[in-house]
Queue: 2 jobs
Job 1
Amino acid sequence: MIVYFRLLKESFTFAINALTNNKLRTLLSLLGVTIGILSIIAVLAAVDSLDRKITKDLSSLDKNTIYLMRFSFGPSDIPQWKREQFPDVTYDEYTTLKNSINNTDQVGYQLFVKRESLKYESKTVSDVNVVPVSNEFIDIGGLEFDTGRFYNESESNSGTAVIVLGSEIAEGLFGQMDPIGKNLRLYGQRFTVIGVLKKQGEGLFGDSNDTSVYLPVNFLRRLYGDNNDSMTPVILLKPKKGIDMAAYKADVIQKLRAARGLKAGEIDNFFINVLSGFTDFIDGIIGQMNFVGWIISGFSLLVGGFGIANIMFVSVKERTNLIGIQKSLGAKNHFILFQFLFEAIILSVIGGIIGLIMVWIISIIITNVLDFEFVLSTGNIILGTVLAAIIGLISGILPAISASRLDPVEAIRTGM
C-alpha cells in the first residue's frame, strides 16, 4: 500500500511538472476538460437552482390545488374558437361548490385583474399586483404575516375596504412607519391597511407576495359588477390530503355541469387546472434542459479526453528512457501502468477543478447581479470531480498501456 501512495505522489509530481514545464501545451490540452466540466456543472447547477426556486415559490401551495376557470394552463384539444365561447366561472358557482363539494379543505374565489397604483399621502407605488380574493385564500395560499392579519369571512362577504400589503409595497409607501390602521387609495377608493405579509423574495413566475396586495373580492364585485371584461374570475379548490384526485375532479365536474345545465354529450365548458400538472410540466422542461446540457457538454468532454490522451502520449515519448531504466531496475508493468494512469487522472482532475472554480465564480456573479440564488451544491462539485477523473482514466488508459509494454532495452536505447 505504501508503494502505491509513493506512486501516487510521484504521478502527482509528474503531472505538476507537465503543467509547469509545458504550460501552454498542457493548458490548451486541458481546456476541453475545463470547458466540458464548466458546461455540464453550470447547466446542472442552474437547473438545480431553478428547481429549488420553483419548489420554494410553490411550497406554500398544495400541489393538488385546483384552478377552475374558462382557460387552460396547458395545451387543449378543444379548438380555440370554441374555448373563446366558454363562460367565466361565477360567484354563485363558487358558493354552490363551497356548500356541496366533499373532501375539500377550502374553496376560494379570485379575480385576475390588471396592475394598479397605490397612493398614501404624497407617496405612490406603481405597477402593483392586485389580488382580489375571498377570505379562504389565507389557507389556500399559505400566507404568513409580519404584522397584522388577513380579512375575515364577514369582511370578505361584505366587501369591506380593507387591504393586506406585501412587504415591498408596505416599505415603499410607509418606510419605517407601522402601516396598520393607515389609509391608502386604490381604485379611487380609501382602504384601511390591516396586515403586512412576511418577505418572500423575488418570485420565479412573475409577482411574489412582496409586490402584491390582497383585498376582499366582493369589494371589486360591488364596485364594477360581475360582467367586466378586464377581470378574469377563478374558483380555487384545495382538496383534503390523501384523497383520490381522479374521483375528486369527477365530482367537481359533475356538480359544475349540473349547475350549468349541461346535457349528456355536451363538452365541459370549463377547465380544471391542477397545480401538480403545471409542476409536472416544469419538471419535464427541467429534464429536457438536463438532457441537452449533457449532450452539449459531452462533446466538450470528448475533446478534453483527446487532449489528455495527447499529453500522455507525448509524456510517454519524452520519458521513454526513464521508463526503460525503471523496468531494468525491476519495476513491474502494472507499476508503470498505474504511474501514467494516475498522472492522466490528476491532470484531468486539475482541469475539472479549474472548471468548477469558474462555475463558482459565475454563481457568485449571477446571485449578486440577478438576485437569483445560483447554488453550486456539494453533489455537483463531487460529480464534476468524478467526471473529470473518469475522463482522465479513459483518456490515459491507452498511453499507460503502451508505456507499460515497452521493452526496457529498447526503451533505454531509444531514449539515448
Job 2
Amino acid sequence: MRRSAFFIRFIGIGVLFHVYVGVRLIGDAPVGMPWKVLAALLLIASLVLIPIGMSARNIEGQPLADRLAWLGLTAMGFFSSLLLLTFARDVMLLVVHLANWLHGSPVGSPELVANSALAVPLLAVLLSAIGFYNARRRAPVVSVDVPIANLPSALQGFTIVQISDIHVGPTIKRHYVERIVAAVNGLRPDLIAVTGDVVDGSVPHLADHTRPLGELSARHGAFLVTGNHEYYSGAEKWIAEFRRLGLTVLLNQHVVVDHDGARAVIAGVTDYGAGSFDPAHRSDSAKAIDGAPADATVRVLLAHQPRSATAAADAGFTLQLSGHTHGGQFFPWNFFVKLQQPFVAGLTKFNGLWVYTSRGTGYWGPPKRLGAPSEITRVRLVAAT
C-alpha cells in the first residue's frame, strides 16, 4: 500500500515537472510548429516511460522488461538534466530582467528568451551523452595510499582492490561484469573487497550475469559484504549464490590473513539497514571483530554504507572500506547524499579510523554519471611517516 501511494505521488510530481518544462521551453523556442509538436510528444513519452522503466523489473518477460528499463531509465537521466537546466534558465532570466529593471533598461530580451529555450534541450542532450559514456565505460582504476601507524613491515604495500555498487540488473549485464573482473585481476591484488550492492534483481534472472565474479582472483581471496540492494533482491539466496561462486561472504564476521609472517584482520558487516529486513542480519561491528587476535593490529572493515564508521571506530578498526553513495552519480544528487551519509567519496579520517568511500564501479538507475566517475579502487597500506 505504501509503495503504491509513493508511486502515485511520484507520477503526480512527474506530471507537474513535465508540464513546467513544456510551458517554459516549447512556447519560447525559436522553431516551427512541427518541432513544437514533436517536443510536446517527446515530453509525453518521457512522462510515460520513466515510471515504466522504474517498475520494469516487475514485468515477467525478461527481454521486454530490460528494453523498457533501458528506455525509461535513459529518459529519466535525460529529463533530470532537462529539468535542472530549465530551472537554471529561469533563474538566469529573472536575474537579467531584474538587472535591466534596476538600470532602467527595457525589461526582457526576446532574443535571450528564445535562444536560451533552444539551448536548454541541446545542452541536456550533450550532458546526457557524456554521462552515458561515463557510466557505460569500464570503471577506471583509482589508486589510494592509506598511511597506517606502526604498520608491520611485511604489510608495507599490501594491496586491496575494492569494487562496489556494480548493480547488475536491467542495464548492467555479464559483459559489463567481465570487463570489471579482468581489470581487477590484472592488478594482481593481495585481497579483493566487494562492498555490496552487487545486484538489482533475483538470482534466477541474474545468476548468469554475476557468474564472472567467480573468476576474481587474489592471493588471499575475494571477500564480500551485503548492501541494501541485496536485501531488496533476496539476500539469503544471493548470499548462497555468492558463496557458490567462491566469494567469502562476511556477515558480521572476520578472518585473519597471514601475509609474509604478518597478520591482518579482514572483517565485514551486513548492510547498515539490514536489521529491518532480517533481525538476524543486524549490522554489528563489535561482533565482527570479536575474538580477533590482539597482535593483528591492522584491522580492515568492509561495510557497505559509510555511516557504519561510528561503530567501526568504537570497535577499534583501522580502516573501513565503503560504497553506497556513488559519489552522487550525477549533479545535483551529490548534495543530497550528504543528508544521509557522513562521507560522499574519497579518503577521510574519522575518530582515528580511516574511511574510504568508493564512488562505485557501476551505476544505479539512469545509465549516467556526471562529476562522479565510477572506479575500481586500488588501496595500498603504507607506513605513516
